Amino acid sequence: MWSRWRLRVLRTGNSGLPNFVALGEQTIPAGFLLVVAVIGRYEEFLATLPKDLHGECARQIARRFSVGCGTAEIYHGDGGHFAWLERDSAADNRVEHFEGMRALFSAPLLVGGHMFDTNVHFGIDRNGQFDTLTRLNTALASATEALRHGRTVEQFEANRLANAPWELSLLARIDEGMRNGDIWLAYQPQWEYRDNRISGAEALIRWNDPVRGPIRPDEFILQAERAGRIDALTYWVLEQAITSAEAFNTLGARFQMSINLSAQLVDKPSLVSATAEIVHRRGIDCRLLTIEVTETASVYNRPDAIRNLQELRTMGFRLSIDDFGTGEASLCYLADLPSDELKLDRRFVSRIVDS
After folding, report:
1. What is the pLDDT of residues 137-154, one digit of tens each?
2. pTM passes above 0.90
3. Domains of the chain
4. Where is pLDDT greater, at 223 or 296?
5. Nearest-CA neighbor of 228 among 130, 145, 117?
6. Distance between CA atoms of 304 and 271, rounded to whole angstroms?
7. Taking CA 351 as the corner, what is the angle to CA 347 and CA 354, rounded to the nearest 5 degrees?
């Protein structure tokens, strides 16, 4: 009786797969990752299925994960979460590995005559100093973050615990940095070889904090996205870059200014009106401005994003798709995006040369 009760406790009822209680009782060997995968819209899939097919749906997903990671034991949690342990690898190989895992779900699931397209994201924990339950919770949080931001994989870093006070005060620190000049724009020149002159520049945000010193853009921009502060930061960049573009163009030569736009902002209803207000106030020709959009595949509301980009293009803005060849960016994602320019990521180009 005890063994039967233990089996019920350690297994998910509908799928028969081991659950997260069972995983929490495991000791993770040294050199192993704890991986959590989350299936977007999983509950919506289940709502369209007869209840007796819920288990089959979970087992099909688990089989694909098992093929991808080479691990027989896949754990099934709530809300479309699955987990397993696998041997760690080098960072570059790790990203490619999870991109490959994601590719396994490019073919739809077919369950009892019902077909579903799946969207999978991963969270990983590599911190062997923590117990299994702590690592499971951090991997769960990372997977949720990957789903929220449209990224393939997020990794929990132990130093984020130490940085919690910094991240919690980020909103005030960004405001302060924009006011006192600690946050500023650098301008990377763009050279026109036919005319042998500087024809434009790309505005690049920088932060030199009085206490922490220089902070890499990828660090504080990611934190700003987590804190919901990316909108204010992006509009500040637009204001500063457009003001500089106007100043450059009063010197006489045609000068093109490129400005990066967060994928989190590109589908916002306020984007076009806020950008138009800055342009009209500064009195600059929109044709002298290029909007660069990165991580296009992570846009949450694609129809609204396309509509916003089309309106910006109608106003005269040039549109550039940045860092093609990274993450989920592909020709399929680009097909319906209005654009004038495609920037290839260096890693993408180097893979073509080496292949």
Report:
1. 888 888 888 887 778 898
2. no
3. 2-162 (3.30.70.270), 164-354 (3.20.20.450)
4. 223
5. 145
6. 10
7. 135
